[in-house]
Structure formats: structure tokens, C-alpha cells
Amino acid sequence: MHPQTLRTYDRLGLVSPGRTGGGGRRYSLHDIEQLRQVARLTAEGLGLEGVRRVLDLENQVTTLRSRIAALQDELDAAHTALSLTPNLPVPVSTTSQLVVWRRR
Q1: What is the pLDDT of residue 101?
Q2: How confident is the model at residue 83 (pLDDT cuts 50, 70, 90)?
Q3: Are 15 and 35 in contact (CB under 8 A)?
Q4: What's the CA gap between 17 and 10, in Å, rounded?
Q5: How would DSSP label each residue in 55-71?
Q6: Which residue(s) pair with 19 in the sheet?
Q7: Can you spell out the DSSP letters for the chain?
Q8: Residues 16, 29: contact at Cβ < 8 Å?
Q9: Bridge-partner residues for 26, per DSSP?
Q10: What is the pLDDT of residue 49?
Q11: pTM for this structure?
Q12: Are 55 and 45 in contact (CB under 8 A)?
């Protein structure tokens, strides 16, 4: 990729490379994969704003998948705890609400 293209992508936030002590850009393997994805999406006709939206959505999906995994672990732990204490009392509501209707 042309250096100016890399600077533009950095400026637009499409990729965020690390920096050297002198201010030069250092691209990680993740950054390089993201640059390849940007190149694929732009080659398919997506504008840079569309590419940014796709990348944002993919980041949201990754975050949500991590959250789902954490919640699943929490649920599994709760199920395990419940199976270890089978005689645990279950709260039951003893009151009921009654609505009385009168005909007019």
C-alpha cells in the first residue's frame, strides 16, 4: 500500500498502528489483517465511511460474543451451584391479587 494511503487510513481511524519512539508507525499482525480487509472492502466498491461502519460493526460483534461467553460461563457456574444444593428452598408467593369487577 502507498504510504499516503496508510496515513489516510490512520487519520480516519480505520487502523491504529503503534508508534516508535521517533513517531514512526509500527503495524502489528492485527493491523495488517485490518488493512487487508479495508483493501478488500474498498475494492468491492465500499467507500471509506462504509468501511469504517463495517469495522465498527465487526468490533461490536466481537464484544458481544465475548459478553455472551462470559454470561454463559456465569450461567454454567450457577447451574453447577444449584446442582450441588438440591434442597434449596424456593420462594413462593403466598398472596394473590384479586380484581373484582362490578357490572354497571
Answers
A1: 76
A2: confident
A3: yes
A4: 7
A5: HHHHHHHHHHHHHHHHH
A6: 25
A7: --HHHHHHHHHHTS---EE-TTS-EE--HHHHHHHHHHHHHHHTT--HHHHHHHHHHHHHHHHHHHHHHHHHHHHHHHHHHHHH-TT-----------------
A8: no
A9: 18
A10: 94
A11: 0.66
A12: no
Burial of residue 37 (number of CB atoms within 10 Å: 0-12, 13-18, 19+): middle
Which residues sit opposite 9 in a β-bridge? none
Assess contact for 14 and 38: CB atoms under 8 A: yes
Domains and CATH numbers, the chain: 3-84 (1.10.1660.10)
pLDDT for the residue 74: 96
